[in-house]
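hey can u check if this looks right to u? its 86 residues, i copy pasted from the old doc so theres a chance i mangled smth
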Amino acid sequence: MSNTKSFTLEILTPDGMFFQGEVESLEAPSFSGSFGVLKSHAPMLAILKKGKVRYKRGQDITEIKVEEGFVEVLPDKVRILVEGCE
């Protein structure tokens, strides 16, 4: 995608890369509540709780069930590290 509103999302498990691609938005569950990410979000680290991660690519919204893990948010990239997902 060459959309200037997109950022790179990586979802990794102990088995390797589950997903890598450009997305426009992300919603994830944390122990302090759900949070959303758009491009140029302020950098942050958070602990993820078991739940659903949703991301948008164009008109498509994808939902992934994740186990507990961590998320690193940078202005142009989000990296999610979880024990497992489907």
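The first strand starts at residue 7 and ends at 13.
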